[in-house]
Task: inverse folding
């Protein structure tokens, strides 16, 4: 699904990320673990072509993400609030995202059904704009919207932060159910069925290993 | 006790990214401030003689007082759109052991340190020094100064109250502007005359220091009311009421059927109607529709007609289009990584802006009964705006990396006020004039208009290719722009 070759990113001479090689197989749930500043978000941003790599490249299904746009049709992400459109209501936002993938509002509702419990009646039908929602609810909206359009690759940055413990459990369940046909790239910890890649501090990834499955 | 509020306000200003990253913009803003100050100063020096010769045989002091009274509503309206009141700056202090009354007092006094309060002084002080001290007695002088200061203070605090302390919606402000514009127009055309009434009010107010202090009393009253309000209401949610916001009940999905660009056009429409800043731009655009009433008469040259046509049909595109992608800065990462291509974004922007041009043209059609030539020129410039102008905005989008929060008020607050704003006017104004006169030399006025229209049609015919060009150009700059949009 994702192949990374000699990927580095430096800001004014300081290297913040260096991954010699990494392969993410289809259907894998990869949890990227590392200290603050280890480069997790940088890695995700590079995979989404939001920032430019200093050297190397990220291939998605064999194509360089910085040179093509085809990956945008099967990749979804929620890194932070800049993936939300704050003057829309959650429903409008879901429909907007669905519309980009030619998913009808009815099918969008169907995709969101597993989220009914997670939303706890506070997200849908409230007529509030996203900018008026609490931080936790904004997170729920962003996570849910990333599953619309049946993407093959889902990238979630810190999906569990600012969620309450029971919601964290429910999100874990969603991940293990959805990983049947989706690849997940997450931080920091994912479901039991995860493999994890450790990014050492400052991205200088000399040794990185994968935990065993299970 | 030294005020850390003032120190922080100064640091906040000095360290704001807009100031350091965009020096040219700061210099231009400073230049504009300087320009207005000097203009007012010069006007202030000669205003005594001007008023004397314009209103011969009448009491110049009373006339000046009447102008002050006219200034008040116009100033409140201007401030409504342009002045930023510093309520949100208080947020980090709410949890700290700072007395509420101190915060309220700081907010209210801080609002005085605004260019809008100093600007009229450049007019009033020289008028007072040069003219009043020469021609009027001490009591009159004091009365005039009291009235002037009272009006500036009232304007400041009423505007503060209107923008922060009340729930005044934009459409009320819109209808107020409409009413004032109609008044100005009727006065201008000599159909009604409010001057005698206002003049006698001014005469009464200026009859002694006591009556002249009425506006100072008004300002104090509003100050006290606001002070009480802030002491009670200084909560974080001051910035936005809970529950459904403006327009959350509107079903805005008209463009949805036109594929992915249509979805993005829907988004644009929602933005323009819901985000405070974008709405303020829209409102000020609609005011431009009245522009020909004031600018065009029998003696108007063709250049004025071209200008009117450009402005009428292109004003929304101008206001909205020059911040083309900045409007989406807060959710730019989403647009750049999900489901749509960059070309979809540019196509959506193009069609949306072209539609606003058509809409403005339709709204200006009643001018046919006023002066048919306006409609003729507008039609030619509609074609020009709907292709050439928008393409210029789309090219400039690769350079304009200003992040704006469309939910923030203040149409001209510092952020998003780029140098490109002024440079953009040059090609968009000069190209049609050159085209027009080239055509006029060959075959007269109609040929000139046909040249403009033909140029526009050419652009419309090839718009797909031109959009592709802009897209490719943007793709080269995309990392730089989206990195700038992420910076707060």
Result:
């Amino acid at each position: 699904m994702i192949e990374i070759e000699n990927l580095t990113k430096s800001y004014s001479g300081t290297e913040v990320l260096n991954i010699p090689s990494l392969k993410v197989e289809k259907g894998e749930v990869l949890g990227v673990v590392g200290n603050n500043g280890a480069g997790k978000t940088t890695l995700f941003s590079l995979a989404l072509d939001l920032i430019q790599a200093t050297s190397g490249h990220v291939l998605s299904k064999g194509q360089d993400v910085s040179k093509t746009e085809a990956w945008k049709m099967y990749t979804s992400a929620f890194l932070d609030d800049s993936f939300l459109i704050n003057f829309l209501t959650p429903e409008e936002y879901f429909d907007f995202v669905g519309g980009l993938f030619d998913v009808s509002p009815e099918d969008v509702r169907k995709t969101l059904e597993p989220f009914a419990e997670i939303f706890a009646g506070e997200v849908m039908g409230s007529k509030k704009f996203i900018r008026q929602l609490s931080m936790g609810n904004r997170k729920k909206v962003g996570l849910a919207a990333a599953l619309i359009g049946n993407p093959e690759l889902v990238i979630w940055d810190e999906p569990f932060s600012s969620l309450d413990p029971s919601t964290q459990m429910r999100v874990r369940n969603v991940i293990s159910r959805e990983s049947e046909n989706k690849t997940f790239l997450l931080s920091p910890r994912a479901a039991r069925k995860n493999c994890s890649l450790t990014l050492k501090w400052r991205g200088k990834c000399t040794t990185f290993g994968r935990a065993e499955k299970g | 006790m030294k005020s850390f509020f003032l120190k922080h306000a100064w640091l906040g200003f000095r360290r704001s990214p807009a100031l350091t990253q965009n020096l040219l913009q700061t210099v231009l803003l400073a230049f504009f401030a300087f320009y207005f100050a000097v203009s007012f100063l010069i006007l202030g020096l000669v205003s005594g003689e001007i008023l004397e010769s314009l209103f011969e045989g009448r009491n110049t002091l009373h006339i000046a007082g009447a102008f002050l009274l006219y200034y008040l509503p116009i100033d409140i309206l201007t401030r409504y759109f342009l002045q930023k009141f510093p309520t949100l700056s208080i947020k980090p202090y709410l949890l700290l052991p700072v007395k509420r009354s101190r915060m309220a007092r700081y907010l209210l006094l801080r609002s005085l340190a605004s260019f809008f309060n100093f600007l009229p002084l450049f007019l009033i002080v020289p008028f007072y020094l040069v003219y009043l001290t020469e021609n009027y007695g001490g009591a009159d002088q004091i009365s005039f100064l009291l009235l002037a200061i009272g009006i500036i203070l009232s304007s400041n605090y009423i505007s503060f109250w209107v923008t922060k302390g009340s729930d005044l919606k934009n459409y009320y402000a819109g209808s107020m502007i409409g009413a004032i514009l109609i008044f100005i127009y009727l006065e201008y055309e000599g159909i009604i005359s409010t001057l005698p009434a206002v003049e006698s009010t001014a005469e009464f107010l200026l009859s002694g220091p006591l009556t002249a202090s009425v506006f100072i009393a008004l300002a104090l009253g509003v100050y006290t009311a606001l002070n009480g309000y802030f002491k009670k209401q200084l909560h974080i949610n001051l910035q936005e009421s809970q529950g459904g916001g403006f327009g959350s009940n509107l079903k805005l999905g008209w463009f949805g059927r036109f594929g992915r660009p249509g979805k993005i056009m829907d988004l644009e429409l929602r933005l323009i109607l819901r985000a405070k800043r974008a709405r303020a731009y829209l409102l000020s655009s609609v005011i431009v529709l009245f522009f020909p009433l004031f600018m065009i008469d029998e003696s108007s040259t063709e250049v004025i007609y071209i200008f009117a046509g450009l402005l009428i049909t292109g004003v929304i595109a101008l206001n909205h289009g020059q911040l083309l992608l900045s409007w989406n800065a807060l959710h730019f990462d989403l647009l750049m990584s999900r489901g749509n291509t960059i070309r979809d974004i540019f196509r959506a922007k193009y069609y949306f802006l072209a539609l606003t041009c058509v809409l403005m043209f339709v709204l200006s059609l009643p001018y046919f009964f006023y002066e048919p030539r306006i409609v003729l020129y507008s039609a030619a410039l509609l074609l020009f705006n709907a292709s050439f102008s928008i393409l210029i905005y789309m090219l400039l989008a690769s350079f304009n990396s200003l992040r704006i929060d469309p939910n923030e008020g203040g149409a001209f607050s510092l952020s998003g006020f780029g140098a490109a704003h002024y440079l953009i006017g040059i090609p968009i104004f000069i190209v049609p004039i050159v085209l027009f006169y080239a055509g006029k030399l060959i075959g007269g006025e109609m040929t000139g208009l046909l040249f403009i229209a033909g140029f526009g049609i050419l652009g419309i015919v090839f718009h797909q290719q031109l959009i592709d060009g802009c897209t490719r150009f943007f793709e080269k700059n995309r990392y730089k722009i989206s990195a700038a949009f992420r910076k707060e």
Q: What stands out?
A: The two ends of chain A are 21 Å apart (CA to CA). Strands of chain A lie at 2-11, 14-24, 29-33, 55-60, 63-64, 75-78, 153-156, 183-186, 195-198. Helices of chain A lie at 40-47, 90-100, 105-112, 116-119, 135-145, 165-178.
